[in-house]
Design brief:
483 residues; TIM Barrel; 2 domains; 8-stranded mixed β-sheet; 17 helices; 13% strand
Length: 483
C-alpha cells in the first residue's frame, strides 16, 4: 500500500486574510490587464470564444476575473489518480501529503562527486529502488537521468515513462515536448494506469505551443495535470515574495483556465517551483530560505480555493554532495512545505539543482520523508495513549515502563525509526567500522537492485505493445529529422 500522510493539525500560515486577498486580487488584475501570451491557435480561439480579449497580432489574451473564478470553481478539490495496482492509487487533495521522486539531468558518482550520463538500465534500476521505498508514493519516470548515453534526447520522455510503468506500480508523470505526451498516454493506456502531465508555463506570463498541446491532449483524455511555473525571483519574476506569488499565480491560473475550458472538471494540481535568484551568480538559489517561504505562501493562497498543490523545489540543495549542507537544506524546505500543506511533494533523489540525482540520495530522502510524515500525523490522545492506569500502577522510582505490554505495543507506533541513519553507541559504531548514512544507504540500494521485483509485473503482451509504441515514436522522430 502506498504511504501517504494525513496532517492532523492546522497548516502553517504566514499571511493574514487581507494579504491573501490582496495577492489574489493582484493575480486577477494581472490576467485581466496585462494578460498572457498564448502561442497556440486553437487555444487562442477557445479562450476568445469564452469571453477573453484576444489580440491576435501579439497572441496576447486578457482573461477576465469572472472567467478565472468560474474556472477555479470547476476544478475538483480532490481527485483519484489510478495506478496499475489499486494499492498504488492516490487520492490527491485535502489534508493528505504524498512524497515522491524528483528530477535531475545526470547521475553523480558518490565517491568522486563527478557528473556523468546514465544508461537506460541505470534508469530502470533506480525506478525499481523507488518502487520499493515505503514513503515514496510517485515516480517521475521521465524527469531524472534525462541525459542518457544510449537513448536519443528526443526519446528520453517516452523511454522514461515506459521504464517507469514497467518497473513500478506507482503513479508516474509525462512531459509535453515533441508530442512525447501522446506516446506517454498510449503507454499508460497499455499499462492500465493514469499518468500526470507536468505542465510548465513559461515565465513571465506565457503558455507555449507545447504547453497548450499537452493541455488539450490530457484534458480530453481525462488525465490529471500539474500546472507548475518556475520563475526566478528578480529574473523572470518580481524579486518580492508578494509580487512573485501573484505572477506565479497568474501563470498557473491561466493554465488551469485553459484546461477547464477544454474539459470542465479537469484534474489540476497548482504547482510552485519558484526560486529566489542568487545575486552573486545569477543562478537559482537552491536551498534558500526564500524557497520555503514561497512554498508556504503558495499553499496558503491555493487553499482559499481548495485546489490541490504541488511543490518540487524543496528537493534541491546548493550542495554538490550528499553532505551536511544537503541534508539541512532539504530537510528544512521539506518540513516547511509539508507543514504548510503541500499535497504532492517531490523530494527523492535530487542532489544539486536540477542537474544531479542518485538513488542513494533517494533512500536517505525516504527516511527524511518518513520522519516528517510521522510528525504530520500528530498525536493520538485517548484513554490508552494517556496511560493513566499504567502510570498509577508503575508509580515513582524504582518503577519503570520498559517491561510493560503498553511499551511493546506503542513504541513503534509513536516513533519513526529510520533505516539509514546511524543510531548506535560510539563503541558499537567503532566496532562496525564507523559506517555513516551514505554507507547504510548504499547497501540498501545495492540490496534493492539485486532483490526487489515489481509486483505485479506487466504481461508479455503489454511489454510488446509498449515496445511497438517506442519503435513508432523513434520512426516518427527519425522522419522529422530529430534523430
Amino acid at each position: 500500500m502506498v504511504k501517504g500522510y494525513t496532517r492532523q493539525f492546522k497548516p502553517l500560515e504566514i499571511l493574514t486574510e487581507d494579504r491573501v486577498k490582496a495577492i489574489w486580487n493582484g493575480t486577477f488584475e494581472i490576467l485581466e490587464t496585462t494578460g498572457v501570451r498564448v502561442e497556440h491557435e486553437r487555444a487562442l480561439n477557445l479562450l476568445g470564444s469564452n469571453g477573453c480579449r484576444v489580440d491576435a497580432a501579439d497572441k496576447r489574451v486578457r482573461i477576465p476575473a469572472w472567467l478565472a473564478e468560474d474556472c477555479l470553481s470547476k476544478a475538483p478539490t480532490s481527485f483519484l489518480v489510478k495506478a496499475r495496482s489499486s494499492e498504488s492509487s492516490l487520492r490527491i487533495g485535502g489534508e493528505k501529503t504524498y512524497f515522491g521522486q524528483n528530477a535531475s539531468m545526470s547521475k553523480i558518482d558518490i565517491k568522486t562527486w563527478e557528473v556523468s550520463k546514465s544508461t537506460l538500465k541505470e534508469h530502470s534500476d533506480a525506478i525499481r529502488v523507488m518502487d520499493a521505498l515505503d514513503n515514496l508514493a510517485f515516480t517521475l519516470g521521465y524527469e531524472y537521468y534525462m541525459d542518457m548515453v544510449d537513448v536519443p534526447s528526443v526519446m528520453v520522455m517516452a523511454e522514461g515513462v515506459a521504464s517507469a510503468v514497467r518497473n513500478s506500480t506507482k503513479i508516474t508523470s509525462a512531459g509535453p515536448s515533441y508530442d512525447a505526451e501522446k506516446y506517454s498516454l498510449e503507454i499508460a493506456k497499455v499499462a492500465g494506469t493514469d499518468i500526470i502531465l507536468e505542465e510548465a508555463p513559461s515565465p513571465p506570463l506565457t503558455l507555449s505551443e507545447e504547453f497548450c498541446e499537452g493541455t488539450f491532449s490530457f484534458a480530453e483524455a481525462g488525465m490529471p495535470m500539474t500546472m507548475v511555473s518556475g520563475s526566478v525571483m528578480g529574473g523572470t519574476g518580481p524579486a518580492t515574495f508578494a509580487g512573485s506569488a501573484a505572477s506565479n499565480n497568474a501563470e498557473v491560473l491561466a493554465g488551469l483556465c485553459l484546461a477547464q475550458l477544454v474539459k470542465p472538471g479537469s484534474k489540476i494540481l497548482a504547482g510552485d517551483f519558484v526560486y529566489p535568484m542568487n545575486m552573486g551568480t545569477g543562478s537559482p538559489d537552491f536551498g534558500a530560505m526564500g524557497v520555503a517561504m514561497h512554498i508556504a505562501i503558495h499553499n496558503q493562497l491555493w487553499r482559499k480555493y481548495n485546489i490541490p498543490t504541488m511543490s518540487g523545489q524543496a528537493a534541491y540543495s546548493n550542495s554538490k554532495k550528499i553532505d551536511w549542507q544537503n541534508g539541512a537544506e532539504k530537510a528544512l524546505m521539506l518540513f516547511a512545505s509539508a507543514l504548510s500543506g503541500t499535497n504532492y511533494l517531490s523530494v527523492h533523489g535530487a542532489v544539486f539543482g536540477e542537474l544531479t540525482w542518485h538513488p542513494v540520495q533517494a533512500v536517505v530522502d525516504d527516511d527524511i520523508c518518513g520522519w516528517v510524515g510521522k510528525f504530520l500525523e500528530g498525536v493520538d490522545v485517548n484513554d490508552e495513549t494517556l496511560a493513566l492506569d499504567l502510570i498509577h500502577e508503575v508509580g515513582p522510582v524504582p518503577g519503570h515502563f520498559l517491561n510493560t505490554a503498553h511499551t511493546r505495543k506503542w513504541w513503534k507506533h509513536e516513533q519513526y525509526v529510520p533505516s539509514t541513519f546511524d543510531r548506535t553507541s560510539i563503541p558499537e559504531w567503532m566496532k562496525k567500522g564507523k559506517p555513516d548514512v551514505l554507507y547504510h544507504a548504499q547497501k540498501k540500494v545495492e540490496k534493492l537492485i539485486a532483490e526487489h521485483h515489481t509486483e505485479p509485473p506487466l504481461s508479455d503482451d503489454q511489454n510488446k505493445e509498449i515496445d511497438e509504441i517506442l519503435k513508432r515514436a523513434r520512426r516518427d522522430y527519425e522522419q522529422k529529422g530529430l534523430i
